[in-house]
Design a protein that fits this description.
482 residues; mainly beta; Jelly Rolls; five-stranded antiparallel sheet; 2 helices; elongated
Length: 482
């Protein structure tokens, strides 16, 4: 053996000539490597006029006499560059960084904070705790302080993609109990869990609109603990079309806001009890009418009064079963992320045959609350936002329609008629029946908008004119249904 194992210092051999040469070579190596301190580790090109004794860690991609010596120690000694290959465990002080580094066999890594307190970068940090690859910063402490450095301070949590999670998780016994942040999308979520496995959404804030929803909280304007239904005419009491019950073709409306779904339906009403002899009833629900940006990811509860058989209810992409029984019966659904825009609500018997039930309610939240009817005038306004009919006087069709007066031959008479409420969209206006027309031509409807339409006709001869609805088949109706 002619050199040492660790630093590879040359031995003076027996009967060797010029022993001082070998001795000086070893001393020169010791002078470089003992208490190793380099000026820099970012240079790839040797400095042109280095002073004797300076040392560097060659940066990757070394050039000139440093070519092929990346990450090795280069020392300028006695007018020439000497290269030393580091071994695992060597340490070096980097003067321009005030940082102690160590060679781990493949790279120089930071050992400690050095003079500046920097640990940049370091793979794991444990403060009174053991960090691991899943928790690369671990702290066991009564408190943690993040202080400003002269002005404000932000805590930033970043994720790679929208489908990932960037959140703060609160645990009890290392089991999750509450979480807030961007959980699986870019909306802001606050959710809780009783066991760390089943989670319930408490608050959802839409990233686009800022709209806040409470998927599992019942909100009541009156403070009585009864949530409003997002179905219109859930008790089937508004009946502007004078539907007497019976068969409905697919898409045909009976009671206000309720139409037959695909395949048709057959229904009759006695008081507040609906008999659905066959088929399925449907109502399209607008989230915006109820202050929601959408129904996506919301928990909703459907309830009915005393179903005589099991019912299948569907809202958006989700379906559930309300079991038969007395009193109010319910099922809770959690809508999918794609349940945006208007959603269809459907109800039918779970199996073939007839079923009775009453007072259908669809509310936001995970628990059913009692039935509470809106004032009839409010319910009628909600219905007339989609459809209204003027005909013979009755509870739902208004007080009929009549225009009379005195005019000259060929004169056009008419007026602008305002809808009882602003309609959902520009409606289709139709006039049905023969009407009573005295001394005038057939009426014309024009200039239809969501607020009004124009009704006019031409007087036949000088004198009195009169036009009016005079039978149950004579009416004007405006239809803006979904």
């Amino acid at each position: 053996m002619d050199e040492t194992t660790n630093l590879q210092l040359p031995y003076i051999m027996a009967a060797q000539a010029q022993k001082h040469v070998t001795h000086n070579e070893a001393i020169r190596a010791l002078d470089c490597l003992v208490q190793l301190a380099v000026l820099d580790r970012d240079l790839t090109t040797p400095p042109p006029t280095p002073p004797d004794g300076v040392r560097y860690i060659v940066a990757p991609g070394g050039t000139g006499v440093w070519t092929g010596h990346s990450l090795k120690v280069a020392a300028y000694q006695d007018g020439a560059w000497e290269i030393y290959i580091p071994r695992e465990g060597w340490t070096a002080w980097v003067a321009d960084e005030d940082q102690l580094v160590a060679w781990n066999g493949s790279a120089w890594v930071n050992v400690s904070g050095g003079g500046s307190g920097s640990v940049n970068p370091t793979p794991l940090v444990g403060v009174n705790a053991t960090a691991d690859t899943g928790n690369r910063l671990a702290v066991a402490s009564p408190a943690s302080l993040f202080n400003h450095a002269g002005s404000g301070h932000q805590l930033k949590i970043n994720k790679a993609a929208a489908a990932d999670t960037a959140s703060v998780l609160f645990q009890s016994g290392f089991s999750g109990r509450a979480e807030m942040g961007l959980a699986g999308d870019d909306d802001y979520h606050v959710k809780v869990s009783a066991d760390g496995t089943v989670w319930r959404e408490a608050i959802l804030i839409d990233k686009n609109t800022g709209a806040v929803s409470f998927p599992n909280t019942t909100l009541s304007a009156g403070g009585g603990g009864v949530a409003q239904s997002v179905l219109v005419n859930g008790d089937f009491q508004i009946n502007q079309r004078a539907y007497a019950g019976g068969a409905l073709a697919a898409g045909a409306y009976g009671f206000d806001r309720w139409k037959a779904a695909t395949g048709g339906a057959n229904a009759t009403l006695s008081g507040f009890v609906l008999t659905l002899a066959s088929g399925e009833l449907e109502q399209v629900v607008e989230p915006g009418l109820w202050g929601c940006a959408s129904f996506a990811s919301l928990g909703v509860t459907v309830s009915v009064e005393a179903p005589s058989a099991d019912l299948t209810v569907t809202f958006g992409s989700q379906s559930g079963t309300i079991t038969a029984g007395s009193g109010r019966r319910s099922v809770t659904l959690t809508l999918g992320v794609g349940d945006t825009a208007n959603r269809s609500f459907k109800i039918k018997r779970a199996s073939a045959g007839s079923v009775t039930f009453g007072r259908v309610k669809l509310e936001i939240g995970a628990a059913a609350t009692g039935w509470q009817a809106r004032p009839r005038i409010v319910e009628r306004v909600l219905c007339q936002h989609y459809f209204y009919r003027w005909g013979r006087e009755n509870a739902d069709n208004g007080t009929g329609f009549r225009m009379f007066g005195y005019g000259g031959a060929g004169i056009f008479e008419g007026q602008t008629v305002r809808h009882p409420v602003t309609m959902r969209a520009t409606p289709t206006i139709t006039r049905n029946g023969t009407w009573t027309q005295i001394n005038c031509g057939a009426p014309v409807i024009a200039d239809v908008s969501t607020h009004s339409f124009t009704f006019y006709f031409q007087v036949t001869a000088l004198g009195s004119f009169d036009i009016t609805t005079d039978s149950d088949d004579d009416f004007i109706q405006a239809d803006a249904e979904l």
